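Re: the request from the purification team.
They wanted to know what the chain is likely to look like in 3D before they choose a buffer screen. I agreed to run a prediction and write the result into the notebook, where they can find it.
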Amino acid sequence: QKNNNRNKKQQINTPTTPY
């Protein structure tokens, strides 16, 4: 479960990256 939380955070960390 802890790993899942980390994965989700990483995806939310880059919601809109033009570069």
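For the purification team: Residues 12 and 18 are 15 Å apart (CA to CA).
Please add any questions underneath this entry.
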